[in-house]
């Protein structure tokens, strides 16, 4: 239905209602379309008046919809009126109405009224992150930075993930600040980005840059740059953090892979205890390997070629550098068939160690184990993103570790026309540096996403903001 | 007027008047006050505005006027709000806001609601209850209508009853029951065993267990009515399990008289290992024929949160043979998981046992999951597939068609 463009008299509403095919929900449908078309609130008021005179009451859902319209148009006095009416009429409100009220009021000059509302929400449930967002942004806008910080910490304590908009607001509205407390707070936000491997987008990055440069007496200068493959920043010649895990992280990751990925709830789901034990002794006797290859994955690189031929090429290509190779496969590869020729398999076994798992076992889990057991220098070859194995890890911290380790240790073949080229995982050069927000005290390096480029979880941004302090 | 109203209310509240009268009067008084205030508003409108102009804020006056007295009451009550009643109040507000929320909630349901770990879990649970309530209401409405119709019919046909002469007494239901029971009893002595593995309770949520039991109950019904029933075994069945609770909920006192074997032993203890075959969709082996000498095991598990390989792991641990239904071989699969419900498994196995005909048996696979049977002539299949693709994908049909043709020829070659 098309809402009218000017207020109507009662009879006119009646006529419209009669002509609608289901008159019971006429008001609801009409209000919905008013919100959609952003009709003038006078029209909505005339409908409310009509409803009120007919029924002596206005239903809650209509009030909420009217409220949505008012919030959409920033009609502060109307929002307050509706709130007064709701408060007298109902003991508590539900989350939808509270969110609308908080959003409407925090965008106005009466933003302080949103705070008691937030308190009220807290009494009945955990406020949503957008509730906090509205309040924090309003506080920032009015330079109440202490209040904003307080709300921000409260939000983190409730395990809510702040939106990037909230974080950006802090930087936008603290330009030129001298307060040491606030500066500490903002550095804290940057560390929050680091810990959770969050990358700011372009406009957020600008806010950060402008804030740094506005610190009085700080002498900070920011430059946009690309980091060299060696991990050196071309602007300040600083070497970025290495992508290697620490000893503790590495051991932790290895234990968690064994516990969560290989054993999981039931060792029999991916392998069997006997097989895993056999594999463990096999690996212990031949340690350490330099490269571990997922045989079946590699054998499918070129679909036109025989599978063992693909694998043969890959092994030859990697064996040249005198590296110790381990190829993981399944038992069916040993049976002479059109895809797996016995002679070629024999020849390969001279160049690399082979382990054949049962046909119904998962070889990926073995791949991870063998690579981690061999040590930090060891890399592995597969095109698989290993997302399902990452998902088996039970906490996000270990998942981040896994991603970091994967970035630094996974090699992927991509087929080229003539010969197999050795390229490292997804168009990215071997990452010897780690792609996170990082600092040395007088420099900050912040990777950021260009708004236009699409980013998958396995991709990391290539662009950086380098900030250094000139003394 | 208003002061008089308040006075009257005070008298009412002091409960001088009996309870019933109190209720009746309260309502009447409210109506009175409301209409009075309304008419006041209207009069004002007419006096200060020319008849054409609308008072746009009139609704606010209406909302505020009728309710002033109630508020004072509410404020005094506000203090004593326990968490339970607070939850009820939130639900009521959600319902007013038009969210899918049931009208009535039992104490137990409210408790489950409050124990839901997240907002989305709460929403989901409420929606489930809401739909359940709707279905129940509809069913009730339908049975009521039916009953009325029947009564009408009876009134119309209430002529002096001519007793119909018939050589059989009209005892269909119980006679059939007895006949079925005989058959099942026979199968318990001579029949082929079929095992339900009841050891998956810890892999399932309470809802999933309830669904699994529902499916088994359905399956048991099909088995009972079949010509040559299986001898059903529930193995690994613990008396203190959720399964047991749910079964009792379904069967009531009939649970004790059910003609099946229930044991807490494992199937490997009851039967020789080399005769057992574990049916699981994850199995690498595909079932070719139904073997009348083997004992098939079905895992009683409903798996809504895709846990692959759980039943395969169980079979592996015990070193049992496994098999999957040849769904790929006989059906052109469309979408959906390859694991079937327990009652569908039962129907398929019963049909296989009776006829050995895969086509007939696989009729029980839900139609939405496949396009058609593979043994139709190829051009006919292509025709239907074209149509489906045209409807489904619009322009992309040609590519899909080509791909299908390729896949299909490959499939033929492999055979």
TrEMBL record, chain A:
Q: Which reaction does it catalyse?
A: Endonucleolytic cleavage of RNA, removing 5'-extranucleotides from tRNA precursor
Cross-referenced Gene3D superfamilies: 3.40.50.11980, Tetratricopeptide repeat domain
**This protein's GO CC annotations:** mitochondrial ribonuclease P complex
PRORP domain span? 227-466
* Gene name in the database record: Mrpp3
Q: Where are the PPR repeats?
A: 128-162
EC number, as in UniProt: 3.1.26.5
GO biological process per UniProt: mitochondrial tRNA 5'-end processing; tRNA 5'-leader removal
MF GO annotations: metal ion binding; ribonuclease P activity
- Coarse class of the primary localization is mitochondrion
Keywords attached to this Swiss-Prot or TrEMBL record, sorted alphabetically, are: Hydrolase, Magnesium, Metal-binding, Mitochondrion, Nuclease, Transit peptide, tRNA processing, Zinc
Q: What class of enzyme is it?
A: hydrolase
Cofactor(s) listed: Mg(2+)
Full protein name: Mitochondrial ribonuclease P catalytic subunit
Top-level taxonomic group: Eukaryota
Q: Which organism is it from?
A: Steatornis caripensis (Oilbird)
* Localization annotation: Mitochondrion
Family stated for the protein in its record: Belongs to the PPR family. P subfamily.
TrEMBL record, chain B:
Superkingdom as given in the UniProt entry? Eukaryota
* Record field: catalytic activity: adenosine(9) in tRNA + S-adenosyl-L-methionine = N(1)-methyladenosine(9) in tRNA + S-adenosyl-L-homocysteine + H(+); guanosine(9) in tRNA + S-adenosyl-L-methionine = N(1)-methylguanosine(9) in tRNA + S-adenosyl-L-homocysteine + H(+); an adenosine in mRNA + S-adenosyl-L-methionine = an N(1)-methyladenosine in mRNA + S-adenosyl-L-homocysteine + H(+)
Per the record, GO CC terms? Answer: mitochondrion; nucleoplasm
Pinpoint the SAM-dependent MTase TRM10-type domain residues.
180-372
A single GO BP = mitochondrial tRNA 5'-end processing
Question: Example GO molecular function term?
Answer: tRNA (adenine(9)-N1)-methyltransferase activity
Q: Does the keyword Coiled coil belong to this entry?
A: yes
Q: Does the keyword Secreted apply?
A: no
The Enzyme Commission number assigned here is: 2.1.1.218, 2.1.1.221
Major subcellular location class: mitochondrion
Main enzyme class: transferase
Q: Where in the cell is it found?
A: Mitochondrion
Span list, region Disordered: 139-161
Q: Which UniProt keywords apply?
A: Coiled coil, Methyltransferase, Mitochondrion, S-adenosyl-L-methionine, Transferase, Transit peptide, tRNA processing
Q: What is this protein called?
A: tRNA methyltransferase 10 homolog C
């Amino acid at each position: 239905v098309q809402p009218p463009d000017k207020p109507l008299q009662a009879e006119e509403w009646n006529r419209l209602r009669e002509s609608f095919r289901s008159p019971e929900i006429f008001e609801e449908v009409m209000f919905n379309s008013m919100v959609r078309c952003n009709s003038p609130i006078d029209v909505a008021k005339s409908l409310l008046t009509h409803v009120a005179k007919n029924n002596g009451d206005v239903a809650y859902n209509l009030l909420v919809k009217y409220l949505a319209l008012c919030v959409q148009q920033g009609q502060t006095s109307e929002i307050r009126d509706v709130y007064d009416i709701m408060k007298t009429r109902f003991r508590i409100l539900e989350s939808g109405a509270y969110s609308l009220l908080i959003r409407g009021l925090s965008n106005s000059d009466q933003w302080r009224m949103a705070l008691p509302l937030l308190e009220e929400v807290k009494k009945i449930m955990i406020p949503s992150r957008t509730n906090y967002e509205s309040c924090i942004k309003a506080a920032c806008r009015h330079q109440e930075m202490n209040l904003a910080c307080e709300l921000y910490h409260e939000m983190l304590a409730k395990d809510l993930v702040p939106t990037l908009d909230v974080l950006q607001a802090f930087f936008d509205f603290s330009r030129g600040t001298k307060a040491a407390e606030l500066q500490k707070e903002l550095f804290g936000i940057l560390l929050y980005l680091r810990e959770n491997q969050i990358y700011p987008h372009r406009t957020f990055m600008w806010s950060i840059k402008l804030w740094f440069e506005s610190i009085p007496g700080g002498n900070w200068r920011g430059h946009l740059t690309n980091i060299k493959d060696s991990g050196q920043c071309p602007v300040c010649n600083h070497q970025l953090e290495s992508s290697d895990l620490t000893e503790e992280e590495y051991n932790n990751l290895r234990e968690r892979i064994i516990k969560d990925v290989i054993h999981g709830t039931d060792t029999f789901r991916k392998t069997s205890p006997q097989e895993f034990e056999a594999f463990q002794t096999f690996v212990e006797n031949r340690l350490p390997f330099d490269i571990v290859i997922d045989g079946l994955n590699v054998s499918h690189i070129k679909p036109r070629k025989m599978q063992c031929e693909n694998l043969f090429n890959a092994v030859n290509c990697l064996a040249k550098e005198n590296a110790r190779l381990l190829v993981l496969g399944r038992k069916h590869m040993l049976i002479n068939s059109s895809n797996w020729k016995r002679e070629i398999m024999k020849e390969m076994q001279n160049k690399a160690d082979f382990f054949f798992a049962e046909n119904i076992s998962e070889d990926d889990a073995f791949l991870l184990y063998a690579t981690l057991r061999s040590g930090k220098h060891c890399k592995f070859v597969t095109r698989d993103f290993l997302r399902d194995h990452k998902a088996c890890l039970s906490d996000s911290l270990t998942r981040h570790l896994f991603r970091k380790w994967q970035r630094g240790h996974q090699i992927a073949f991509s087929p080229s026309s003539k010969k197999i080229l050795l390229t490292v995982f997804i168009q990215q050069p071997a990452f010897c540096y780690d792609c996170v927000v990082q600092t040395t005290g007088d420099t900050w390096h912040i990777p950021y996403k260009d708004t236009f480029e699409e980013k998958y979880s396995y991709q990391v941004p290539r662009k950086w903001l380098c900030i250094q302090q000139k003394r | 007027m208003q002061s008089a109203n308040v006075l009257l209310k005070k008298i009412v509240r002091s409960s001088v008047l009996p309870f019933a009268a109190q209720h009746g009067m309260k309502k009447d008084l409210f109506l009175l006050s409301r209409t009075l205030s309304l008419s006041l508003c209207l009069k004002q409108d007419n006096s200060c505005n020319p008849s054409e102009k609308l008072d746009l804020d009139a609704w606010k006056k209406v909302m505020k006027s009728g309710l002033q007295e109630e508020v004072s009451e509410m404020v005094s009550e506000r203090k004593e709000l326990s968490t339970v009643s607070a939850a009820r109040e939130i639900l009521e507000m959600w319902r007013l806001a038009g969210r899918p929320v049931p009208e009535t909630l039992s104490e137990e349901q409210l408790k489950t609601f409050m124990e839901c770990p997240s907002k989305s879990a709460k929403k989901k649970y409420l929606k489930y209850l809401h739909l359940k309530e709707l279905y129940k209401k509809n069913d009730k409405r339908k049975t009521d209508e039916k009953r009325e119709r029947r009564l009408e019919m009876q009134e119309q046909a209430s002529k002096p009853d001519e007793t119909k002469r018939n050589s059989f007494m009209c005892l269909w239901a119980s006679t059939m029951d007895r006949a079925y029971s005989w058959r099942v009893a026979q199968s318990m002595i001579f029949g082929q065993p079929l095992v339900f593995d009841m050891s998956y309770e810890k892999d399932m949520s309470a809802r999933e267990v309830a669904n699994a039991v529902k499916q088994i109950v359905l399956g048991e019904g099909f088995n009972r009515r079949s010509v040559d029933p299986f001898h059903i075994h529930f193995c690994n069945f613990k008396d203190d399990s959720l399964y047991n609770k749910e079964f009792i909920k379904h069967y009531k006192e009939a649970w004790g008289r059910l003609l099946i074997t229930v044991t807490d032993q494992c199937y490997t203890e009851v039967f020789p290992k080399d005769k057992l075959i574990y049916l699981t969709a994850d199995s690498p082996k595909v079932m070719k024929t139904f073997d009348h000498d083997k004992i098939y095991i079905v895992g009683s598990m409903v798996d809504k949160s895709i846990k692959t390989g759980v039943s395969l792991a169980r079979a592996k641990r015990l070193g049992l043979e496994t098999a999957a239904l040849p769904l790929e071989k006989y059906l052109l699969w469309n979408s959906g998981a390859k694991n079937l419900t327990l009652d569908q498994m039962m129907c398929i196995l019963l049909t296989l046992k009776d006829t050995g005909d895969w086509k007939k048996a696989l009729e029980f696979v839900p139609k939405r999951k496949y396009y058609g049977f593979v043994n139709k002539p190829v051009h006919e299949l292509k025709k239907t597939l074209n149509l489906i693709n045209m409807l489904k994908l619009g322009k992309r049909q040609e590519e899909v068609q080509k791909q299908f043709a390729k896949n299909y020829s490959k499939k033929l070659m492999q055979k």
